[in-house]
Structure formats: structure tokens, C-alpha cells
Amino acid sequence: MAKVNKNIIKIKTPPIDYFNNLLKYKSSSDISQISFGHGIPMHTPVDYHQFKNSILLEPNSYKYTEIKGYYEIRKFISEKIDLKTSFDVNPDNFIITSGANSALFKSLFLHLEEGDEVIIPSPVYFNHVMAIEMIGGVVVEINSNPTNGFQLDTEKIINKINSKTKALIINSPNNPTGAIYDMNDIKKLSQICKKQNLMLILDYTYDDFVYDADYNPLAEFSDLENLIIVGSFSKTFGITGLRLGYICASSHLMDNLSKIQDTISICAPAISQNILLELIKDPNNAIRKNHLSASNSRIKLINELKKSEYLNWQITNGAFYAFVELKNIHDSWKFCENLISNQSILLLPGSIFGDEWNSYVRIAFGSVTPDEVEEGIFRINKYIADTT
Ligand SMILES: Cc1ncc(COP(=O)(O)O)c(C=O)c1O
Fold it and tell me: Distance (Å, rounded) from C-alpha 334 to C-alpha 358?
């Protein structure tokens, strides 16, 4: 048998399908299923947009686009980002990719050589870890602080920088904690990256999901020399299945990035880009609707978790995740499996976001109603009370 690359073999299999399938096939049939597992917003375009164009009948929906993606989409996203930065960005700083995951992989692939270190705050978004390891890089995880809502430990991050360090990945608003990192800390890190000539990759997938705060981490950067922004259209527009994201980078990187994009995907799917072209005619529609539903479920979650004897959430203000401590439980994987089979409720175990977080679970509230939040937290509390 031909040998598989050793970097791929050592990577853990993504856990999402395993837990989704448990809910689908192994949950209790007596009660309704509630999924707090999926990192998706409530509304797809079916809920908020009336398509006038017949995208299915357009021949260009079935053809390659320019490697960088449609100019109109790059213009849209460049104007959105430009409003937040003190420096100028334009459509030539952008490549439309098949999702933010692909954008992140391509950005890392551009920079990393075997053995290079990448620092990431933990809890980690596991696809970041997978991408680094797949390319042959070394992940350096630095724990965030659970007692202050998982803010960054900048001191520790800075102390870990050495001659092998190539990049830092900062994901804010964060998956899985929902933290929006303090802008002073972002500033410190942006300055250190500049000084030491490291790349800071900002995963900005949840930029439109911030609650009760005025938040703009991009204000802390002076240019794109040591910054790559990777972002997504998935969450804002409720189009996770269309696979659209972007890379925003300095124009001098574009030629090399295009080589990677062309080799891996040629371009982002044309039919998806055609759909997005329609949606960006009225972007606020989607943003408002998805933000409002996540916000309502978050308010309900805050109230329900405040009352819980068994669950502890240091409230965070971004994305649509709560990273919640299970007060007396230290095997989050087993807990989540049992919760599915007994209560038909899907949470993701904290351990998949780093070994340290085995007493935590991630509650995704983007696609559940406030009533489901109430019912779900009731069942979780009852299950813990009955079994511990
Ligand atoms: C932090 C983070 N980055 C990237 C992604 C992937 O987004 P996309 O659907 O654009 O690939 C996700 C999806 O959950 C995410 O949470």
C-alpha cells in the first residue's frame, strides 16, 4: 500500500460528523432533538431574499471564474474592510476562496516550512491546528484565561516567540469561546509581529456577530505587511454550504497566493459566487436577521445559565458560542455522548478544543430558538442532577 503523508496520519479526525451522527441515529426517540452543536446561523437566504435572477440558467454558473473571484464580490468585501482600517485596501488585496477554512489553509501554506511554529490561543478552533500540522508546522498553544472570559495571555504569547515562530493566529470573535479579544491586546500583538517580522493571521469569520460592544480589532493594525485577514461569507449570510470566504493580504503576496488557489481549487464555486452577487445587493438584510436571532437566543442563554447550579459561563460577547464549564464533570466527551443518548441534546465536548478543556462544553446558539435554549438547558440541568 502506498504510504500516506505522516503529517496527515497524526492529525485527529474531525469530530463534528461523529457527534452529528450520534444525534441523528443514537439519540433517545422519546424526546425532540435539540442541536447546540452546529456553528451555523439561523437564516439562510430562503428566509430573507427573493431571487429575481435565475442563477441556475446562467451558463457562467457552471464555468470557472477568475482565480481571485468576481471583481464585484472583492469590491464589496474590500469596501467593508476598508471602513474598519486606517490604511487603504482595495479589491486587488482580496482572493475569494472556498470558505474561510480554505483561506486559512492557503495563507499558512504560503508561509510555513516544515518545523515552523505557529502560536494559537487555546481553546483552539481545531481546523487551525489541523491546517498547521498538515503543512508540517508545529502548533504552540497558549491557554487563554477562563476567569476573565478567555481573554488572551499576551505575556505568555510574547514569551513563546522564538526563532522558529512564523505566525500567530488570532480568531476574534472566537470559536469556541465567543470571546472578543481586548483591542489593547490585539494592538500589542500587532506591534510585536511587526517588530519581529511575523505574520499575524486574523480569522475574522464572525466579524458580524458582536453583542453589547463596539468592536473593531482591525483598527489596531497600521498596514497589511504583517497581517493577513481571513474571513467568511458563511455565517453573515447563512450560506455555510456555498463555501465562500476570502483572504485579504498585501498585494505583494497575491501572485504567490494565486498559485496556491489555482492548484487547490482554481476558483471559488461560480454558482455560489453568482448567488452571493445577488445577496450583496442588500447585505444588511441578512446581517440584521441572523444577528437578531443569535442575539435573542444569547439573552435567553445568559438568563438560563445564571440560574444553573451545574453550569458556569463567563459571559462573552461574540460569535454564537458559549464555552461553559461543567462544575463537577471532567470527561466532556463521555458527557456529550451520554447527553445525546439520554436527552437528545447535542453539545460539543471542550476536549476537542484542547486537552485542557475537558470540563467544558461548547454551546452553539446561532441556529436555535430561545424556546429551544430554555428547554435544552432545562434538560441538561436535570440530566446532571439525576446522574451526579
Ligand atoms: C473560527 C472559524 N474559522 C473558519 C471557519 C470556517 O468557515 P467557512 O465556512 O467560511 O469555511 C469556522 C467555521 O465554523 C470558524 O468557526
Answer: 10
